[in-house]
Amino acid sequence: MPRIEVSENLYRQIESEANNDDFNDTLWKMVGSYRRTNNPEADQT
Description:
- By secondary structure, this protein is mainly α.
- The chain has two helices and no strands.
- It has helices spanning 8-18, 23-38.
């Protein structure tokens, strides 16, 4: 799995969003959401 480095502020936001769920799952959901919003063609085959 790739390593993603984030600022302390962003880490706290992700931690808050996870709300006791798996941190990594929450992070990848947020990355996927960002990707679909900013580059929708990337998820098309």
